[in-house]
Prior knowledge:
The chain has helices at residues 34-38, 41-57, 61-83, 86-110, 119-134. The chain is mainly alpha-helical and 135 residues long. It has one domain (34-134). Helix 2 (41-57) runs antiparallel to helix 3 (61-83), helix 3 runs antiparallel to helix 4 and helix 4 (86-110) packs antiparallel against helix 5 (119-134). It is elongated. The protein starts with 33 loop residues before the first helix and ends with a helix. Hydrolyzes the sphingolipid ceramide into sphingosine and free fatty acid.
Amino acid sequence: MAPAADREGYWGPPTSTLEWCEENYAVSYYIAEFWNTVSNLIFILPPIYGAIQTCKDGLEKRYLAAYLCLTAVGLGSWCFHMTLKYEMQLLDELPMIYSCCVFVYCLYECFKYKNTVNYPLLFLLITYSFVVSIV
């Protein structure tokens, strides 16, 4: 049997720009980096529960957005570590940028005095996300 690093897995050879310290396809033929993939469950399951509770408790939509962003980060990272494909790497990295922008806006919402929308901040965060996505 070939060393684990030389094994061909279900998703084919990696096309991503980086690989982590885990041997590829060492545990499963279908998952390139098994332990990195499985560790993303903490970013998927608890935020889904939080989103459900947010809806049940009638909390502000910003909490729902934050939980869904964490879920997106976990799912993107899950896909990337499972496949090590470049497209999935983008699915891993871009939701982190978008989520940080959502969290910055949520943080602003904690300290405002009136029930208003900060359009300049929204414009800045959306523009930042757009520019990072294009680059």
